[in-house]
Amino acid sequence: MEALIHGLGTICPPLRANWEEPWPPELIQGDPPESRPTELHRPEAAVSAVEQYAAQAQPLPVAAPGTPSSPAGEHEAGHLASTTVEQAIAAYVQEMRAAGRDPKTLQWHQTSLGALRRYLWRQFHLTDVCELTRDCLQSWVTDLPIALSARTGVTRTVSTVAAYMRSARAFCNWLVRQGYVSETLFPKGAVPQAQRGLPHPVEPAAFVHLLRACQLAGSPGGQSAGMTARNRAILWLLRDTGLSVSELCGLRLGDVDRADGTVTVHRKRGRLRVFPLSADGRRAVCAYLEQARLTPAWTSVVPEARDLLLLTERRHPLTKNSLTLLFLRLSQRAGFAREPICPSMLRDTYAIRFLRAGGELAALQEQLGVADLASVKRYQHFCEQRRQEQEIQACSEESVFTQQSRRDKSKRRKEQGRGRGRRRSS
Known about the structure:
With 426 residues, the chain is mainly α. 58% of the residues lie in helices and 3% in strands. The chain has two domains: 17-61 and 76-178, no CATH class; 204-378, hpI Integrase, Chain A (Orthogonal Bundle). It has 16 helices and three strands. It has a three-stranded antiparallel sheet, with no helix packed on it. Helix 6 crosses helix 8, helix 10 packs antiparallel against helix 12 and helix 14 (343-356) crosses helix 16 (374-425). The longest helix has 52 residues, at 374-425. The radius of gyration is 32 Å and the shape is extended. The N and C termini lie far apart (133 Å).
């Protein structure tokens, strides 16, 4: 046996090294290169071979309980038992890709499951699905909120941790459906619930500063004028309708009725919602259409974006990322660099104005298009809290005024008493 091993090492040293040392998990498809584990390195030929197998990995059918064993069934069971975590993740992602899932969704699953895979290797040297245990996943769930992110160098937020755990939970459920494991190994109730704080409305003075920050230098009829009109239209649309970012980016030219001053929003399940614009909002949207969007210079270069309402400077569809960068620039110009204003704050502003005008919670839920009534109750709580603060402030001011009035009366009485004493002495 020793002679055989020695001969194997002489003929092909990489294979012997590969046979003697455990193999770390490879990168799943889409993993960033810098995230590769550095403890051990697999020979290049071995890596390419396993990655090719992982890319082609497909879940195998599972024999029904109680069926007689057969060589084919035993072979399938042995294949499932020898499947690595990396191969299972690749098959899981491939199945979602075949189902038409969004590329960003696939990328997010690759990121979160890649983090789980690397953790299992570093902490437990675990590579095979059959080695997975609930204790291993519980350890990952415990360490994830306090571990530093390799990309940012800081701990992850509650929402990010929850997203990572939801991805891992879905993957564990998929392992059960495919027969890799008999029951789900993900700890029950481990996904944290993100606590939503109070809303942050934009005060009228701050909104005016944002509108002024939209003004760009340039000729009155040039490119800068069109971008200025577009930015102001975005601000007024968000303030007057309370749309989400995805709804705003999805607006089309036909959704704007300039005659009636309304905007129609197409929501899930074919539901339509019509929002009236304020006088200022109507003027801003019409100015954008006349000065920019409906002119030949603003024709979209992307065929699927030709009927979209809002475009970028390069005539591409407006995206969430481009809108976030726009608000960062406007906040810096308006003097809000330390506490920048984001689109969700204008949505909060709309909701609070709606309730203060006498609107009901159920109506606000319909306006915002949210499924849970509890999501809009925080706006009611905010309005009640503000009302109590204003009452306390009013009582405090009234108390100060009363005390000042009493002091003035006492001072006048003393002065009157001194005047009477002087007249008597004279």
